[in-house]
Design a protein that fits this description.
Length: about 325
C-alpha cells in the first residue's frame, strides 16, 4: 500500500527504488535496518599514477578514493589528484568523508563535505612535513575525529574536534599506537598497539583512562560494531584472517579461513555484514561476508582495492 516515486525512467532511479523497497521490507517484516541504500568508500589503484612524496621519497603507486553502492554497483571516483589517497572514513550523518592523502607530500587527514561539493577541503589534524596524520575515525556524534599521529615523537592516538580545535594526545606512550575505532556510545576507543612487543588490541576511555588489553593475539585495523563486537585483522603475513572479539562472552572468533589473505574489516551500520579486503581472487579486492562467516560476495573487479568503510544508515 506504499507509493514510491523514484524516477523509474532511469536505471539509477529504478535501482534506488528497489533499494528503498528492500530496506522498508526488512524493517516492516523483521524489524531490521537494511543497508541497501548505504554506500561503501574504498581506495583503489585502478586509475593510479606513479607518484612520489611518501616518507621514503621513492616512487609509489598512487590510489584514489572511490564510492559505490553497498553491493559494488555504481563505482565512482571521488578523488582525482593523482596521488596516494587511502583510509576513507564516513561521518555519522553519512554526508562527510575524511581520508588520508599524500597530496601535499606527506600524509594528512582531509575532510570533504559531500553535500557541499564546491566547498574547500579542511585539514583538522594540522599536518606538516614533520607531523604526519593517518587513519581517521569519527566519534558517533560526529563532533570529534580520532587518528594516529607522530607529532609526539612516536605514533600515538590523538583526538581533535571536527573543526580542528581541542587537539590532544589520547595514549601518550613510547610504543606505537594506531588504527583507532570508537565504541557505539562514544565513551571508549579501541586501537592497535605494540606496547607488549606485538600488535595487540587495547581499549581506553575517551578521556584516556582505564587502559585494558582485549586481545593478546596479533591484530590490526579494529572496527567496533553496534552489535557488541569488534572485528579486526588477525594473524601474520601472508595469511591474515578476519577475527571478532565478542563482548558477550569475551571470545575471539575467526570469521574467515582463506582462501588468500583477508584483512581490513568494515562493519555495516546494522552490524550484520562485514566488508573486507581479500586476495582470494588474485589481486586485492573488496568483498562482503555475513557476520556469521557465510555468503561471501565480491564487490570490486579492477585494480587493487583496500581500506573499505561503510556509510551509516542515517545518511538516507
Amino acid at each position: 500500500g506504499r507509493r514510491y516515486d523514484c524516477g523509474l525512467q532511469t536505471a539509477r532511479g529504478a535501482r534506488d527504488c528497489a533499494h528503498a523497497i528492500a530496506d522498508d521490507f526488512h524493517k516492516e517484516t523483521r524489524n531490521l535496518n537494511g543497508v541497501a541504500r548505504t554506500k561503501l568508500a574504498f581506495a583503489s589503484t585502478r586509475d593510479a599514477l606513479r607518484v612520489s612524496g611518501r616518507p621514503t621519497q621513492t616512487a609509489a603507486l598512487g590510489k584514489e578514493i572511490y564510492i559505490s553502492d553497498y553491493d559494488g554497483a555504481n563505482q565512482q571516483r571521488f578523488t582525482a589528484n593523482g596521488n596516494l589517497n587511502i583510509s576513507p572514513s564516513w561521518s555519522p550523518n553519512g554526508n562527510i568523508l575524511a581520508y588520508t592523502s599524500y597530496v601535499s607530500g606527506f600524509p594528512d587527514i582531509y575532510v570533504a563535505n559531500l553535500s557541499q561539493p564546491g566547498r574547500a577541503l579542511s585539514r583538522p589534524a594540522h599536518g606538516t612535513a614533520q607531523v604526519h596524520n593517518q587513519l581517521s575515525a569519527w566519534s558517533p556524534d560526529g563532533t570529534k575525529i580520532a587518528f594516529m599521529s607522530n607529532r609526539s615523537g612516536n605514533t600515538d592516538i590523538w583526538v581533535v574536534n571536527s573543526d580542528g580545535s581541542d587537539l590532544h594526545n589520547l595514549t601518550n606512550n613510547p610504543a606505537s599506537d594506531w588504527a583507532p575505532t570508537w565504541s557505539p556510545d562514544g565513551t571508549k576507543i579501541a586501537f592497535a598497539s605494540d606496547r607488549a612487543g606485538t600488535n595487540q588490541l587495547y581499549v581506553v576511555t575517551a578521556n584516556g583512562t582505564g587502559l585494558q588489553l582485549l586481545v593478546s593475539q596479533q591484530i590490526d585495523r579494529p572496527t567496533w560494531s553496534p552489535l557488541n563486537f569488534i572485528a579486526f585483522t588477525i594473524g601474520s603475513f601472508p595469511g591474515y584472517e578476519i577475527g571478532l572479539y565478542d563482548f558477550n562472552d569475551g571470545a575471539v572468533k575467526i570469521l574467515t579461513n582463506g582462501p588468500g589473505s583477508n584483512e581490513s574489516p568494515a562493519i555495516a551500520p546494522n552490524g550484520r555484514h562485514i566488508a573486507f579486503v581479500t586476495t582470494r581472487w588474485g589481486r586485492k579486492q573488496i568483498a562482503i561476508i555475513d557476520r556469521t562467516g557465510a555468503n561471501v560476495r565480491r564487490i570490486t573487479e579492477a585494480g587493487d582495492n583496500d581500506y573499505p568503510n561503510w556509510q551509516p544508515i542515517t545518511a538516507r
